[in-house]
Design a protein that fits this description.
Elements lengths: L18 H23 L6 H19 L12 H6 L7 E3 L4 E2 L14 H14 L14 E4 L5 H14 L8 E4 L10
Parallel strand pairs: 3-4
Antiparallel strand pairs: 1-2
Length: 187
């Protein structure tokens, strides 16, 4: 039986040590444990203590590396959690909960249908407290627009057109990401 280090994501751990150092140390501990396992398999019982120490060191290293790094991708809550949940005062931001604080909202549609203008209009409504598509703004909010379609030139054109109509400084209220050069990877 051999143990191997595969894709533990050392470089992304929450440890104060660089990932390559932890990875090298884990590889060393694994090699040490494998040597002891092979000696035990050949009947040399005197290595049992060495194996246990190696495995204990390995276990402690894994615990240190992954401390705070693991977060389940799917949380499970009992129904009582949802029944007992209290809506914060400023939770609903626009309309009948169409836009909620802390939510991730997507405007999707065919090219040229006004998604970018609608998202900028929502950001302006969130900054000014004025309605958005006849839906009331219940609390002012800041907006992050993750741009997937339009480049810098198009975003500039949109903002120039809109800011001619309103007199508000948007830097405090809005952020926009230019589309990623190599696509957008959500994994």
């Amino acid at each position: 039986m051999n143990y191997r280090l595969r894709g533990l994501g050392m470089e992304n751990s929450n440890s104060e040590f660089p990932g390559h150092i932890l990875s090298e140390e884990l590889e060393r501990l694994i090699k040490e444990a494998n040597k002891c396992l092979h000696k035990l398999a050949k009947g040399n019982q005197s290595n049992a203590g060495d194996l246990m120490r190696s495995l204990k060191d390995f276990e402690l290293m894994i615990k240190h590396v992954t401390k705070g790094a693991y977060r389940p991708k799917l949380e499970m809550k009992p129904p009582s959690y949802f029944r007992n949940w209290k809506e914060p005062e400023d939770f609903v931001l626009c309309g009948e909960a169409y836009v909620r604080r802390g939510g991730f909202h997507v405007l999707a549609g065919h090219p040229g249908t006004g998604k970018s203008r609608a998202s900028v209009a929502l950001a302006i409504a969130g900054a000014t407290g004025k309605s958005w598509f006849d839906m009331p703004i219940r609390h002012c909010f800041k907006t992050l627009i993750i741009q997937m379609e339009n480049g810098v030139w198009r975003i500039k054109q949109e903002l120039d057109d809109i800011t001619r109509l309103i007199d508000i400084e948007l830097d405090e209220w809005m952020r926009i990401t230019p589309p990623p050069k190599d696509g957008f990877d959500l994994t």
